[in-house]
Amino acid sequence: MSKGLFDLTGKVTLVTGGNGGIGLGFAKGIAKQGGSIAIWARNAEKNAAAKAELEAAGAARVETYQVDASSEQAIIDGYEQLLSDFGRIDCVFANSGRASRSRSVLTLDSEEWHDLLNVNLHGAFFTLREGAKQMVKRAEAGEPGGSLVYCGSLSMFHGIAGINNYAASKGGMGAVVRGMAAELGQYEIRCNTIAPGYIKTNIGSDGGMSPEMEERMKQVDAHFSAKTPIHRVGKIEDFEGIGAYLCSDASSFHTGDTIVIDGGSLVYPPYAF
Asked: What is the mean pLDDT of the chain?
């Protein structure tokens, strides 16, 4: 049965870090449209829970793998296993990443600088590069197309004190994705970045936060809600639609873009009333 404009029947999507947060939001949208999903993430328990949730949402097939998204060789090996299991790859979401542990440029040391870039920049690049190789092979065999997606952030546009390595990774990959779009368009492979705003990912909502931290998070939520034209925090469900769209043939002429999903906060100046 057709699922309409975003029908993903027969398509295989890889989502790194897809067992929770925004990555699970992308995967859930794909599942609801009947796509098959491979998840790369380290936590086996969360992988199992995500698999069950995605299968219940309608995914044709879900497989999870414990892949180190900061390792070039692990990524290459991961694709070999994925292709052995699924036989093809149609869409890749390079979503794995971590937050900066830095709070000042003056104390951002080389270990923290490089460790974050290994995941957020280098790992994301290798993930998209290896996916592109497989899509090009398929195009040269007579079946063009494919979608490569990077999960960026509003730090690509804003100056945010202290988190320089995080912002460098997001801005750098934004440039990489635009370059890939320019090169790979001849194969009908599109390449885009998604830049989320403040998103409530439910991390810590399972009782892991102290009462003091819960109260602090309520204040943070209220602050961002007040500064966002759509007066609420973002939810992982807000990424289901864009995930399904970018995987589907409906986005076949959409490439080289940075798509902001932030409730309008980017366009809202800090001095607005």
From this structure: 94
